[in-house]
Amino acid sequence: MTRLLATLALLVPCASTFAAENDVPASGKKPHATEQISPAERGYQALTQTAFIPAFWTQNVIPNAWKQWGATEKPTNYTTAVLERYGLHSAPYANDGLPMGLRKASRVLNTGVGIDCMLCHASSIDGKSVIGLGNSALDVQALFEDFAKVDGLSGKLPFTFSNVRGTTEAGGFGVYLLGFRNPDLTLRTPRKELGLRDDLCEDVPAWWLMKKKKTIYHAGTTDSRSVRTLMQFMMHPLTTPKDFEKHEPAFRDIQQYLISLEPPKYPYPIDEAKAVKGKALFNQNCATCHGTYGEKWTYPNKVIPLDEIGTDPTRHKGIDVTYGKEYSESWFGKEKNGWFVNGLPLRATAGYQAPPLDGIWATAPYFHNGSVPTLNGVLNSKARPKRYTRSFKTDEAAYDKVNVGWKVTELRDPPSEKLSPHEARKIYDTSKPGRSNGGHTYGDDLTDEQRAQVIEYLKTL
Hints:
The chain has 16 helices and 13 strands.
């Protein structure tokens, strides 16, 4: 058991150096002590104020992280340096001085630093922190390695957490952790092999899209009504089955908060006349899969077969029936949902779910593996860079307003073997496993002018 705890301690990773901005619920106001608040507001409070799992690291990890960077002295603007190295963002709520994604939590004998959902599911755009926006700047591999080393561990992870910055091996986390649990969520050892792969290269979808979906995740395998699926990150070795039962009501409120979220509005000028033309083109060419928008919106919830969509199949094939069967037979798949038969098991699909496009301007890079940095590339397969890097900053200067997405620097040659792993992860090479930028060629038949019109319309969503 000691070895099990030490291994899992790598998986779920002075706070005063970070400044929180405010402490208000989603409504923008603090409720009076006796005032009734909505489930969504309760969910916001639970999400931003509760440590659902124990801490893995000591409080020394942030003040001393720089010692793992190869630096001879602590950087002068250390707060910014930490945020930029790991792709973290300031918390727009009180968070004990920590950035979003990190959280003060109890350890066995004291208090330390752990993680929460916002590590991957919150980011910033145009200089503003946004809960629910996938963190496309995150270097989760460096975060876990460095913090483990600060605490005296080797930093060797049980599998690769990220192959390229801004993506994660989220599927691998679920497969690995569930392997340590019996169906009733009691711990088991040794770990059951459920087909772990760590080359899926997953981009994080926006939370606000959940309100429209009947099924979620890239392959559309999970019923969107499921609350327990949101709790998979709680599979910390010290989390007991009773803890899952205890916190399930809070996650029902959190789910209500997630589906209450609205995407940020495009903050720059929009050519309205061009957008009107783009809307007509979009409805003719794109709405069948991605739905229509406005007051009477529609969303078809379609899964497009792999041979039709043509995008990288690794993510779809990388989580197979072995894991699906184990999940469906576990506590996660036996959810009491109020229908005739209890249980929300995973389902097998033939491809990838075409997502709603609300707030798409903010969710670059695109495709399930984050292989295409701009919307222009999504609509023109010939414009997609084969190998590129970017700043991983999220301010106006880093944003491409013409092509809509992130400004990138195309690279001709593969990265040098002399690069540190941290620097190598900044390069997206579409020739690598799980990272193809092919497929979704539906916009190739449009003219450049028509693509520009569609892009202008997409800014309004």
